[in-house]
């Protein structure tokens, strides 16, 4: 392995041929070098300005590069559709904290027994 710490676009590492590398998207998304308050959900992190100032590989739930997720736009639209439907009808309160949810790695990384929320009808 060769490391070039002073490469103009950041530290560059050349890995040996044939090496299997595992990348943990949750660790990348909580890296304090890119996220000032890594455990908080801050919607402002996703404003176009903030995105353009950030390393493009600092948020990779859909992977990155030539084999990234082709369903990304569809998945985000689907999430917005479902979540906006729920939030229009209910106040949603989380009964959990990030720290008391044990994540298990399956096809995706998910909390071991779901996320507990309290729903209160808005009207
Ligand atoms: C929240 C939802 C989703 C997440 C987080 C997600 C995440 C990912 C990730 C991380 C990869 C790269 C896997 C790898 O490195 O081998 C991937 C690939 C892929 N995803 Fe998704 N995905 C989502 C939804 C979808 C949907 C809705 C579709 C299809 C409608 C889809 C189709 C694909 C396909 C075909 C690939 C393989 C692309 C390739 O290898 O060239 N995904 N996805």
Automatic annotation (TrEMBL):
Keyword field contains Heme: yes
Protein name (record): Cytochrome P450
PANTHER family membership: CYTOCHROME P450 (PTHR24291:SF146), CYTOCHROME P450 FAMILY 4 (PTHR24291)
Gene3D superfamilies: Cytochrome P450 (1.10.630.10)
MF terms in GO: heme binding; iron ion binding; monooxygenase activity; oxidoreductase activity, acting on paired donors, with incorporation or reduction of molecular oxygen
Binding site for heme: 69
Keywords attached to this entry: Heme, Iron, Metal-binding, Monooxygenase, Oxidoreductase
Organism: Caenorhabditis angaria
Domain of life assignment: Eukaryota
Family from the record: Belongs to the cytochrome P450 family.
Cofactor: heme
Coiled coil: none
Pfam families in the record: p450
């Amino acid at each position: 392995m060769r490391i070039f710490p002073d490469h103009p676009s950041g530290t560059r590492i050349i890995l040996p041929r044939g090496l299997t590398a595992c990348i943990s998207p949750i660790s990348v998304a909580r890296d304090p070098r890119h996220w000032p308050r890594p455990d908080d959900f801050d919607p402002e992190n996703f404003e176009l300005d903030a995105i353009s100032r950030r390393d493009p590989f600092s948020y990779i739930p859909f992977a990155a590069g030539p084999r990234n997720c082709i369903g990304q736009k569809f998945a985000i639209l689907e999430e917005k559709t479902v979540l906006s439907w729920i939030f229009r009808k209910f106040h949603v309160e989380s009964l959990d904290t990030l720290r008391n949810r044990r994540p298990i790695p399956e096809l995706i990384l998910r909390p071991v027994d779901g996320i507990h929320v309290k729903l209160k009808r808005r009207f």
